[in-house]
Fold:
Amino acid sequence: MYTSRISGLGCYVPENVVTNDDLSKIMDTNDAWIQERTGIKERRHIKKGDGNSTSVMGVKAAKIALERSGLSKDDIDFIIFATLSPDMYFPGGGVIVQDMMDMNTIPALDVRNQCSGFVYAISVADQFIKTGMYKNVLVIGSENHSGGLDMTTRGRGISVIFGDGAGAAILTRSEEEGKGILSTHLHSEGGHAKELSLEGPNTGHWVPEIIAENVQENIPYYPYMNGQFVFKNAVVRFSEVINEGLVANKLTTEDIDMLIPHQANLRISQFVQKKFKLSDDQVYNNIQKYGNTTAASIPIALTEAWENGKIKDGDLVVLAAFGSGFTWGSAIIRW
Structure:
């Protein structure tokens, strides 16, 4: 029986730092208001001319992960790319990465599960490895939010939250029992799809129609979020799916060495931490520096936690995410 382990991690964020004070100059907000509600102090945004895009950032993170894994690009059998902000409406970012990294004609799959995208992608990669189909899978989470945000007072409830960046992991086949990814657990509830969404443009109302009818103001170009409703659902689903993973592996909260939650809102992470009675050393948060980077948030945080020596061999690492869809999931990993 094969298992999959994470053999390499990497992350990349743009150099351009956007502080809360910077945002206060272009919209009616301030540092105290943002920190109180989200815990965010600053985020990174792609800057015009810096050469970055969703796929470019994904490649930068992937190259770091690849080097750390000790593998070459020719060792990769499969690419899974998680994002809600691809370079183009289609094709997705996976094939762009395959071309940019000059890889063989390996398959590339795009995952569109927003904030849960990386956990979903890890789950897919894990299953392909466990069945013996692939040996080394490149999993990327990358987002370019800044180009599609309403950077005015009207959009401040969402625009202050999101940042740009990418993270990547190499999953490699292993035969070491009891190590690597022990299990993954995925869920969805489409009844709440519109509570966190971006509806237009879409196939029901293409851009040419919008231009022809001159109804731009009526089309929801910018993301919408019912913040309180999302928060209430998030804290419940986070707890449920973490518990589900622990129970499946006959573990308890006392066994958790490191929880890496999706960086949606520091208040959500703190709520979950308190519920599970975890110390600050058992939960890794970096939303303060990067904001919510959606599919990139877990791999960026996981990479940083590992780089900072907070994850050691034999540790039980739990990944958990909740977001648009609604979708949510967890991964239980023995490092």
Observations:
- The radius of gyration is 19 Å.
- The chain has eleven helices and 13 strands.
- The chain has two domains: 3-174, 180-195+223-334.
